[in-house]
Amino acid sequence: MKRHLGQSGFSAVELLITLFIAAAFITTGYQLYTIVIRSGADTRAQSRASNIAYENLRRYIPQATIPCTVVTPSPTPTIPVDSGLPSPSSITVTITCPYGTFTISKVEASVKYGTPQQEVIHAIYVNN
């Protein structure tokens, strides 16, 4: 008569290997999750800065004059407190004469935000 000793369940080594693999998957999943969240926040801030720059660009286009003159727009543009941009944030709008001609003006809006500082620039050429 032959006796067969069968093993049921996991051995200790198999259990440790399975736990190690599960821990690796959980760690990788958490790292991917944090990357997605961080990238989403960066993209949201860039989108808000872009919207603010574009709104100010459109607001100051009428101040481009004939003949073209370099102008600091009035009133000085500001970023709303509830804009959702990371601090510190600032905006600069300039009107310049890029080609030295009398008819073409360049209106440029630049929004700087966050630490490290990021910048979004929108510009348009206006042919008066």
Topology order in helix (H) and strand (E) letters? HEEE
Placed side by side, the strands forming the largest sheet appear as 1-2-3
Number of domains: 1
- Helix content, binned percent: 25-40%
Descriptive account of the structure:
The chain is α+β, with helices and mostly antiparallel strands and 128 residues long. It has one helix at 12-60; strands spanning 89-96, 104-113, 118-127. It is built from 1 helix and 3 strands; from the N terminus they run αβββ. The protein has a 3-stranded antiparallel beta sheet. Strand 2 (104-113) and strand 3 form a beta hairpin. The radius of gyration is 29 Å and the shape is rod-shaped. The N and C termini lie far apart (106 Å). The mean pLDDT is 86.
